[in-house]
Design a protein that fits this description.
Chains A, B: It comes from Streptomyces fumanus. Two copies of one chain form a homodimer. By secondary structure, chain A is mainly beta. Chain A contains four helices and 15 strands. Chains A and B meet through strand 5, strand 8, strand 11, strand 13 and strand 15 of A and strand 5, strand 8, strand 11, strand 13 and strand 15 of B.
Chain lengths: 286, 286
Amino acid sequence: MSEAASAPAGPATVGDSEFDRDTAVTRRAPGVYDIDLSAGWTVLGAVNGGYLLAVLGRALADALPHPDPFSITAHYLTASRPGPAVVRTEAVRTGRTLSTGQASLLQYDDEGNEVERIRVLASYGDLDALPDDVRTTAKPPALPPLERCFGPQDGPSPVDGGSAIADRLMIKLDPDTLGWALGQPSGKGEMRAWFGLADGRDADPLSLLLAVDALPPTAFEMGLSGWVPTVELTVHVRCRPAPGPLRVAVTTRNLAGGFLEEDAEVWDSADRLVAQSRQLARVRLS
Amino acid sequence: MSEAASAPAGPATVGDSEFDRDTAVTRRAPGVYDIDLSAGWTVLGAVNGGYLLAVLGRALADALPHPDPFSITAHYLTASRPGPAVVRTEAVRTGRTLSTGQASLLQYDDEGNEVERIRVLASYGDLDALPDDVRTTAKPPALPPLERCFGPQDGPSPVDGGSAIADRLMIKLDPDTLGWALGQPSGKGEMRAWFGLADGRDADPLSLLLAVDALPPTAFEMGLSGWVPTVELTVHVRCRPAPGPLRVAVTTRNLAGGFLEEDAEVWDSADRLVAQSRQLARVRLS
């Protein structure tokens, strides 16, 4: 077989990439989907919440008449594990411009009983049908050029590279929000990074659900360590992202009573604010 | 009957006020509640979304083992009308610290069929059980003293007083965000006000759900008029509010594609950030 006949060496594409294969759901019955949750999107054994949201978002995109999640909220109930799972969806209301749906991700305990992992409520629309007016006053985050930011692959392991998901993401952190990795957290609840998929697949509305929950916790820059489990995550997808790397800025303003919020903004290469998210997370003070 | 035996003339209290009476739900069966939606909380005939969220929040507080909404998300499906309604709840998961529940508000069409108005997903906890650490970096909004702010009752009707809800709320807008009422909107997506209930009832977690959706739309200050219907509203209640008036600051950063987000912060008299909310709303450009 000649070299010319082998697979092209170019970047992965939307629809033909590891992210697409690992979020693919199989319709078992109307509104019911099977999936094998991949171990490739875990952080220290825990399946990443953004990857899980993308799985649920994909099932809802199939179950509802509109393709794109305009607003999607997930409550994380129990820890998901790699392996078989079922997504059960319900079309709550179907409208002309928006449809609202609900979904549950379930797995099985040792006795084979269903255990609910995540409950989702979402409204879907068609991003391509929106008018192209933009009156935003928001400004893109001030990030150094990508080549002056740092990821797990750079230098003497400044960022924990022990997570499977790290091999699948292109995350380059702003040095100004990397102090925690050097033992000198800034004390500010900020985390900024360039973001993409490691195989070069461009962003789409589903991968934005991953982008908002992929950076290290802002709590690290506030001098805290340990697990920051998400209670609830809401994402607004506002625009179809242009090709090229994304910029993600995450901010925490209120750490109190053992909880914090993380607000994320995602900007595309055309300087459009393509997604806004907020999550409520628990934090163990240390 | 002597004057001494008549009702005390002091302010209304939590549990004995118009807001409490108008959000009271009656349990018909386990998890199912009846309510008569009051016409007193309407804006030009439409029932206020924050009042409706408080009704749903109250039903969930009864249905779940924890009392306070830590994170509550509502998707507004169809327009609610004053009159009879049913709330159906489901306890999704009950944990030690948090419980997750779902609720639907339903009314009836002319043929007596149930029509779903609102679908809610929420996690509840106990605010009084939280540790009292505060490491917030957020600052309270800079608002002039209450007596230098303006409401519907002040002056030559600077704010539309034609809504029933205006009689039940104490809203005093910062003059800096009142330009729209004088035909001179600032162009900035900001709205700030002192907030309370007109009968003097102090705030509690349920009335915070009302506070985040009670100010005029930020779109007014961006020079737009008309209806700004909420698609989705998420509220995080972070702290039990201290007695006294609240300060509410609402900000819009991204108006694009016919949608905008409204972020609200609610601060209490003790300078604690007691609630954070975000809603996605549709806007008709004019």
